[in-house]
């Protein structure tokens, strides 16, 4: 509290003078004490100081005395110095002298001021009463002043408090103005990290460290922040790497959808190009039917060709269709992590990690499912994964500098290409469905076109397609093998009849056959071929369609496609169809009429091969390049098949003849002939007549060959009857009966069962039998022996060994007769027989000797 100082009083002055006097007295007492102390010290000092030393220390004692006078400090050091100098008495005297001098000064001063002191006391006593009054007035004034100034003091204290607060606020404001930007930058850093904006956060962290924190370095929190900066950098680095890992995991899961989208875009572009090419072909080619069928084939083999499904999904996928495959992916985690690692000086570490992880993901994407070959969806999923992977890598390569290099991409693609080819080669080998194989081919083509659009070389995939084409052809061969078998099994092997014009037109459209005479006939009309012919021809065309479907989009020229289709069709004709026809022809259940019809069928199929070649040329568009095309082997195939059928006809006919001949039962000891031909032979001839009547539809040469073969086989079989070793005896009556059978055969031959033979050509089949029987019937051995070996010999075709065999059998038959019971002419005949046998043996032995010589 503010107080007014009291007024001075005279007594106060008096008191001050008194205090001065008392001070001087105290000083005197002080010196006395010092003197007593010095005396005490001098008593302990050595008394035997030399006089010479007393003068030396005189000046020092003077200095010590002056020091004692000038200081109020303790006297211990002075006493110590005196004690050390050992001049105690001298110093004591010096000190006493100085004390006496001060006492005189004090006394003189007191005497000088005593009267003034008395006067002052008197005046003080006078002023005392007034001072008391004044004191009371001052006390009252002070109390009043104190009372009146309480509010002022309060306000003053409040003002001081406000000033202090204001000063604190100003100081705090200044501090906050420095700290707030730092805190704001730190908050901004936290927000950026929470929002996963790591690259801006890293920039903010740099500004915070180098610009803002130095301004507030005197504050403790700045050190805490500075210590946290390395941890924040690592946190940003780890967070960006975590985002990169999430990105890699995400694109691994979504690669299939990315690849599907990329393939869809490639397919749309391909369809657009195909429409333009189709318009050009429609203008170039007049065969609209072929073009329309090719268009249908394209639509059927479209791997994404579910138009209804596309219409349903259009509303849901409009947005995706407007975007490219790259737009479907947010690559910011890659860019962000790359920039962060670059700023932190760890770019190489980031690149190595990224490439290592992508290599692992590439191997995972290239690993197919074990059952991929079972469905088309398995192949789609496999291709989508691979395309999605390389679309992502291509985008990263084009949008970053050095993260994915061209060399790295080439290494990945070379590794992937070898794996893809191995996988497709393995899994396609399990495929047995031609339709699925065709869809797989279209997928591979679309897969290749999609990747080629991103700059990847895919020529090896097209080479693989050539391998798959061979497998596809094998599958088609198996499929058409079953088709041909079913056609041949269901064929009636009878001429095809049509009841009305619609059926007739259908056959004419399906098979190139023209016959003006047939067109003029009334219904029902009869085609020379059976129902299997148009079916087989149609299936050959279908096979060519199936082959050309696989050839499309393989970057092949019209000539290459034409050659490929022709080679595949040749394989179908020469191996599959030929094998089916051969197996069908060799069936034991087929009769002569069926074999004849098969032979006729092959003739018409052979004729249709020319139209088949034109059809393939028109379909492949290689009409102008026919110089380079291979020729169809169908003509030779059907010729060989027809020869096989004809051989079967000959074999069947001979087998049937053998069946009749097995019924033969000759009595070789018959004495007299029955006068008519054997019954089995008459049945055989009747069968041959009816059979050769069926041969009228066969080419003349075939019917003639069949007839000639049958007659030769019959003649040789009859000759075998005569020469059979089991027949030991032959009588003349048996020979006469046998001659009747041969005469019947000759009559059949003379009737010309098959027209077109030259005169005597068919009769020559029985000439050997006829000469042999004539020789025995006429018994004209003298002429035979005399003309033997000459061209004019009447029995030139009779070999001596054959005659010997029959003569010996006749001699065995005659041995049963009693020699004495024989008539003379019979005995002469026996002698002649023995003589003839002897001469015939000589002829045989003579010929053998000549041969040996």
TrEMBL record:
<feature type="domain" description="Exocyst complex subunit EXOC6/Sec15 C-terminal">
    <location>
        <begin position="460"/>
        <end position="809"/>
    </location>
</feature>
<dbReference type="GO" id="GO:0006887">
    <property type="term" value="P:exocytosis"/>
</dbReference>
<dbReference type="GO" id="GO:0000145">
    <property type="term" value="C:exocyst"/>
</dbReference>
<comment type="similarity">
    <text>Belongs to the SEC15 family.</text>
</comment>
<dbReference type="InterPro" id="IPR042044">
    <property type="entry name" value="EXOC6PINT-1/Sec15/Tip20_C_dom2"/>
</dbReference>
<comment type="function">
    <text>Component of the exocyst complex involved in the docking of exocytic vesicles with fusion sites on the plasma membrane.</text>
</comment>
<dbReference type="GO" id="GO:0090522">
    <property type="term" value="P:vesicle tethering involved in exocytosis"/>
</dbReference>
<protein>
    <recommendedName>
        <fullName>Exocyst complex component</fullName>
    </recommendedName>
</protein>
<dbReference type="GO" id="GO:0006886">
    <property type="term" value="P:intracellular protein transport"/>
</dbReference>
<feature type="region of interest" description="Disordered">
    <location>
        <begin position="287"/>
        <end position="325"/>
    </location>
</feature>
<keyword id="KW-0813">Transport</keyword>
<feature type="compositionally biased region" description="Acidic residues">
    <location>
        <begin position="307"/>
        <end position="322"/>
    </location>
</feature>
<dbReference type="InterPro" id="IPR042045">
    <property type="entry name" value="EXOC6/Sec15_C_dom1"/>
</dbReference>
<keyword id="KW-0268">Exocytosis</keyword>
<dbReference type="Pfam" id="PF20651">
    <property type="entry name" value="EXOC6_Sec15_N"/>
</dbReference>
<feature type="domain" description="Exocyst complex component EXOC6/Sec15 N-terminal">
    <location>
        <begin position="94"/>
        <end position="263"/>
    </location>
</feature>
<keyword id="KW-0175">Coiled coil</keyword>
<dbReference type="InterPro" id="IPR048359">
    <property type="entry name" value="EXOC6_Sec15_N"/>
</dbReference>
<dbReference type="GO" id="GO:0005886">
    <property type="term" value="C:plasma membrane"/>
</dbReference>
<dbReference type="Pfam" id="PF04091">
    <property type="entry name" value="Sec15_C"/>
</dbReference>
<dbReference type="InterPro" id="IPR007225">
    <property type="entry name" value="EXOC6/Sec15"/>
</dbReference>
<dbReference type="GO" id="GO:0006893">
    <property type="term" value="P:Golgi to plasma membrane transport"/>
</dbReference>
<dbReference type="InterPro" id="IPR046361">
    <property type="entry name" value="EXOC6/Sec15_C"/>
</dbReference>
